[in-house]
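Project standup — Tuesday

K.O.: blocked on the structure for the chain from last sprint. Re-posting the sequence here as requested.
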Amino acid sequence: METRVRLEPWSDGDFWLLERKNEPAMTAHLGGPEPAAKLADRQRRYEAMSARKPAAGRMFRVVWEAPDGAARADESDASVGSVGFWEREWQGRPVYEAGWGILPEFQGRGLAVAALTELLSYVRAHGSRDSVHAFPGTDHPASNAVCRRAGFECLGEVDFEYPPGVSHPSFDWRYRVDTVRHGGLTPSG
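H.V.: unblocked you, prediction finished:
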């Protein structure tokens, strides 16, 4: 059975999701929970991204389009997490960076892969940069598996800084948008 999600642009009504994503279980690989002021600032930035031109990046709320007969009634059209992309420079080149998070009670159902796949479709349609990178920690097998299943190519281990000022070992995963957009054979080039 196919896992289906819908991406909804981040809005002022999504702060509750940001609060849920700030819980210790969701931030263990991201430096821990952020203080309330940083969370409010993040909400403003995410909302502002929805007002920019599509190629500049977006944050989305991930809505699970659960199949008919879902195990629980609350699984139908449930908001299950977020996914987004933004502009950055990496190793002297303009690229996009992607990030995602699926709430713990919805993990293990293929929702992160489905959300990232939908995001990549959006980037192919609206983006202007030739690749999307993700930098999950080397100690985060689930996020590394999401990258692999979504068609990213692992370029190797790097020291990546997140949060700002904190460097940690990560894998550099790349999805080649230009190859797919122009009829290449594989998503990762």
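K.O.: great, moving the ticket to review. The beta strands are 5-9, 57-65, 76-90, 93-102, 131-134, 153-161, 167-176. The first strand starts at residue 5 and ends at 9.
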